[in-house]
Design a protein that fits this description.
binds zinc ion, globular, 212 residues, six-stranded mixed sheet
């Protein structure tokens, strides 16, 4: 699996490019202010991007959607329960004192588990509300191969969990999503969060102070 991570200030939110090493098809996850770096990484790997997939619709995860969609001409997917946040991206910016451009409407909502395919890989969608109502985990792996990598947005971090004080957030719901969805994956499952370093399910299950 080709995997590139990029992040820039002020939010240092991770944007991801994932590609199939055999077919050179790929997806972009959560394009924000680092979108030009993601597009450059996709070009460097000569990837043909199939989808722009969003883990949720907080502004740091979506400010690059319009640029990516214009550059690539591919559909954008989001969970329906975060559409109210997505449509309010300009107001989200105002709340942080940051001017933000409106973004084009999303093209599809995650109606079911997917997968959204790119080459020999798929991204399976798991609804993990709590940080926000429409937060999802994208479980990415090869068809027929049980091992997956999890792209969890701001639900779970190395040594921490997502904040729940923003509109639509709820701590009990977040903890339930982590325990009943994310922790059903094997301990060696890699976890790529919206901010910070990668971790694994096992490491967080055993050492995360919010979950032990
Ligand atoms: Zn967030
Ligand atoms: Zn974030």
């Amino acid at each position: 699996m080709i995997l590139e991570t990029r992040a820039v200030g002020p939010f240092f939110k991770n944007g991801y490019v994932i590609g199939c090493e055999e077919t050179s098809e790929g997806v972009i996850i959560d394009p924000g202010d680092e979108v030009d770096d993601l597009l450059a990484a996709a070009r460097a790997h000569r990837l043909s991007i199939r989808y722009i997939l969003l883990t949720h619709a907080h502004l740091d995860h979506i400010t690059g959607v319009g640029r990516a969609r214009k550059a690539l001409g591919v559909p954008v997917g989001l969970h329906r329960d975060d559409d109210f946040l997505y449509r309010a991206v300009v107001q989200q910016g105002l709340a942080f004192g940051i001017p933000v451009e409106a973004q084009p409407p999303v093209d599809f909502f995650y109606e079911d588990a997917g997968p959204w395919r790119f080459g020999n890989y798929g991204a399976w969608v798991f609804h993990t509300p709590g940080h926000c109502p429409g937060g999802v985990c994208l479980a990415v792996g090869k068809e027929g191969d049980a091992s997956r990598s999890l792209f969890v947005g701001d639900t779970l971090f190395a040594g921490s969990i997502g904040r729940t004080d923003l509109p639509g957030g709820d701590t009990d719901t977040l903890l339930r999503s982590i325990r009943q969805v994310l922790f059903t994956f094997p301990d060696d499952t890699p976890v790529y969060s919206g901010h910070g370093e990668p971790t694994t399910i096992g490491r967080e299950r055993k050492t995360n102070p919010f979950l032990t």
